[in-house]
Amino acid sequence: MNPILIAGGDGFIGKKLTEEFLRRKIPVLVIDNNITSTPKKYLDPNFSRIECDVCNLDRYSIPKVSGVVHLASIASPLIYKEFPEMVIKSNTIGTQILMEIAKRDQVRFLFASTSEVYGDLLPEKKGEGISENDISRSRLLTKRSCYSTSKKMGEELVFNFQRNGGDGTNLRLFNIYGPGMDLKNPGYGRVIPNFIKQISHDQKVTIFGNGLQERSFLWIEDAVLAIINLLFYKGSLPPAVNIGHEETISINNLAKKVANILGKQYTTINFDLDVGDPLWRKPNIQLIKELIAWEPQISLEEGLKKIIFPKLRTSI
User: Fold this and answer.
1) Is residue 42 flagged as an active site residue?
2) What is the total count of domains within the chain?
3) What is the pTM of this model?
4) Could you tell me which of 311, 146, 294 has the C-alpha nearest to residue 233?
5) Is residue 118 part of a domain?
6) Contact at 8 Å (CB) between 8 and 71?
7) Which of 88, 85, 50, 91 lies closest to 71, judged by CA?
8) 266 belongs to a structural domain
9) How far out from the chain centre does Cα 246 lie?
10) Which of 5, 34, 85, 225 has the smallest CB count inside 10 Å?
């Protein structure tokens, strides 16, 4: 079998995806420039790696592959607000180059998009969650907009690829978490490991805004299974698929939940919320349920305990 190409394969999701493919004896080719990640050594003949930026991948001789998963994008607000061109290029130029490989080998292409493409969600949609065909309401030209806008552009490229006969889709991921999330680039984008670290070490818990904003969090192994099942799904894929958990929690209550599991008290310190940061995010996952009979298996409470008490972890 030709390898599955995983761009950004040394990142948080990429590593878990790589490990699961290797566990299944499926060859993997990782592409990563390691700007925001640390490569892991795999003593496995089914593993290979090219260390480079996806935007420069056309300079390399890439072997025939069995599928392409594009996870190569900076997701840390601290980095992309300072270096917006890095996230813009990987989601546009990088996407186009990787799609050319998928087109060359006539294989499926999965683009890791984000829930942030939905922007400021309408309050009346909160109960049922946001679905793939709902209207996007985004603020333009903010310090955060480079991420959501470039993801939207990447989605348009994939949609055009699909319209022209290509096999691919956009994965709209909602806050994936789990063990192994590094704090090399701490900040709002790493809220769960931040809270665990801060509360464990009796530090003030960082809250952006008033903490009433609500988010949903998806356990990493649930996310990996969704990605793999979509990659190997035999039917035609829709233009976009939500991958997330319908369980939501406010940031304030997330801090309380972490503290309760740790059995600790804590104090908070508040910072301004970024312009354009939505007050809630909840996915409607009916489409993926119907498509591949997938839904999350791990609740937030279970997931937090698995991180805090590692002996509770199990493999996929």
Assistant:
1) no
2) 1
3) 0.93
4) 294
5) yes
6) yes
7) 91
8) no
9) 16
10) 85
